[in-house]
Design goal:
With about 190 residues, the protein is mainly alpha-helical. The chain has 4 helices and no strands.
Length: about 190
């Protein structure tokens, strides 16, 4: 299936989801959803995600609903087209339609994860910088290019003699007591 045809079928899946949302809203409010004002919703409740005074906003109107519907079709078609272009052999009309149905939810879930991924990538990059600086400091110490117990040339403090970070590993008495005479494992 070509990606453009798959995107059109995915947009049809998005249109199906939009139709279901409109049907549910009509059944609930007994009028078109763009005519529902926030103060007519029974019972009027203040939600935590609302700003003060937002519960008395006017109805959004049909233009806002059509624009939101068009955006849903675009998201459904774009995601389906991208999947079809990536995996052309495994994309058939049913798969494209199902991707279009769940595209908006998938995009919402991914956008909540993006800040976490960026945060973790930043930590990983920072961790690599710190490790590199520590390795450079150890290389200077091992080559004898550093004089005295003061700070190193890179501005990092020098490890104290006998510390594990200097390379002199000190055995842990608890671990040594658990090993058997052959050194093959711990006591069970």
């Amino acid at each position: 299936m070509e990606w453009f045809l798959a995107a059109a079928v995915g947009a049809a899946g998005g249109a199906s989801m939009e139709a279901v949302d409109v049907i549910k809203a009509i059944k609930w409010h007994r009028q078109m959803p763009w005519n529902v004002q926030s103060d007519t919703i029974d019972p009027p409740q203040r939600r935590a995600d609302m700003r003060p005074g937002e519960e008395h906003l006017p109805a959004p109107g049909w233009k806002a609903y059509w624009f939101a519907g068009a955006l849903r079709l675009f998201v459904s078609g774009a995601l389906t087209g991208a999947v079809a272009a990536t995996y052309p052999q495994s994309t058939n009309p049913l798969v494209a339609f199902l991707i279009g149905l769940g595209a908006l939810s998938a995009v919402q879930q991914v956008t909540t994860l993006v800040p976490l991924m960026v945060k973790n990538a930043g930590r990983a990059a920072l961790g690599g910088v710190v490790e590199e600086a520590q390795q450079q400091s150890q290389a200077f110490q091992q080559n004898g290019q550093q004089s005295g117990p003061g700070p190193s040339n890179s501005g990092l403090p020098r490890p104290q003699p006998g510390s594990p970070s200097q390379g002199n590993q000190q055995p842990d008495a608890g671990v040594a007591a658990q090993q058997d005479q052959t050194g093959q494992g711990g006591a069970a």
